[in-house]
Amino acid sequence: MKTSTSLAGLIRRALCAALLGVAAAASVPAQDYPTQPIRLIVSFPPGGAADVIGRTIANGLGEAFKQTIVVENRPGANGNIGADAVAKAAPDGYTLLMSSGGTVTANPFLFSKMSFDPEKDLTPVASAAVVRPYLMVHPSLPVNTVQEFIAYARANPGKLSYGSAGNGSSLHLAGEMLKRDAKIEATHVPYRGAAPALNDLLAGQVHFMFDSGPGLKHAQAGKLKLLAVGSAQRSPQVPHVPTLAESGLPGFDADTVFGVYAPAGTPTAIVNKLNAEINKVLRTPQAVAAIHAIGADILTMSVSEFVERQRAERARMGAFIKQAGIKLD
């Protein structure tokens, strides 16, 4: 009996030691992380909101970690190409994704087939900024308010066109949401990015569009008319401009949260460390200035808050896309 008891005790102590060893080994990467360069894949083209936000975070993280953060643009398929590369990367914290929230909250409903499951294959790390959709019209339109715009569109059914950054982009979805809520008809003209769409709006090739921020300077210069903000709240950058909800379209909210993601399975300690450091970077004057310059606003959250925000957005946008019948394939 004594031999059996002592043997059982030895086994228990051995198991405890093994478990402690595993826990200690798991904590080492988080304590030392990062020990090599980090690759930050931006799933949209250079010069856009995701690129500016991603490079801003990369510069700050590089200084904080004393490591090189390599930014790699992999645009295409409404963010799916870059996100797929991260979803299939090793979950060690050395490959990260910067993308719009639409890649993980809208794409699963826009595409019949995807090579990865955003909800299962990506881990939210840190929110970065809220990119607001600004409703802008060409000065040739005889309207100065949302109410006048809706009345004009209804009086000219099908004669107006609107540009977007591409099929399925957040700006496209905002346009479709406006058509639904305002009960108007307009032709969607997709572009390969927001910049060419904005250029054609300035040239009068399209009549209106939801702009993600770069158009603000043109509105201030009188080259465009800024009618409203398509977010739940007014933009701190143009606080005098009403929201669409305040302008007669209750509940209108088409803003997008851009953030950083990691492959599923990345150690929680590394995710938490990245979240803390990214939040610090985003509070610096340099980051605030860079992100405000593109018309976006800083939005920092804890990991759990970001996960919950994405879950709510997925449910909300999924319901809208299904109701609107929007499909990209």
CATH architecture of the largest domain: 3-Layer(aba) Sandwich
Order of helices and strands: HEHEHEHHHEEHEHEHEHEEHHEH
Q: What's the average pLDDT?
A: 90
Number of domains: 2
Number of helices: 13
**Ends: how far apart?**
70 Å
Strand content: 15-25%
Structure at a glance:
The chain is of the alpha/beta class and 329 residues long.
Layout: helices, strands, pairs:
Blueprint: H1 2-32, E1 38-42, H2 49-65, E2 69-73, H3 80-87, E3 95-99, H4 102-105, H5 107-110, H6 118-121, E4 122-131, E5 134-137, H7 146-155, E6 161-164, H8 170-182, E7 187-190, H9 194-202, E8 208-211, H10 216-220, E9 225-229, E10 256-263, H11 268-282, H12 285-292, E11 297-298, H13 303-324
Parallel strand pairs: 1-2, 1-3, 6-7, 6-8
Antiparallel strand pairs: 3-10, 4-10, 4-11, 5-8, 5-9
Structural description of this entry:
This protein is α/β, with parallel strands linked by helices and 329 residues long. The chain contains 13 helices and eleven strands. The chain has helices spanning 2-32, 49-65, 80-87, 102-105, 107-110, 118-121, 146-155, 170-182, 194-202, 216-220, 268-282, 285-292, 303-324, and strands at 38-42, 69-73, 95-99, 122-131, 134-137, 161-164, 187-190, 208-211, 225-229, 256-263, 297-298. The strands form two sheets. Strands 2-1-3-10-4-11 form a six-stranded mixed beta sheet, with helices on both faces. The chain has a five-stranded mixed beta sheet with strand order 7-6-8-5-9. Helix 2 packs across helix 11 (268-282). It is globular and about 65 Å long. It starts with a helix and ends in a 5-residue tail after the last helix.
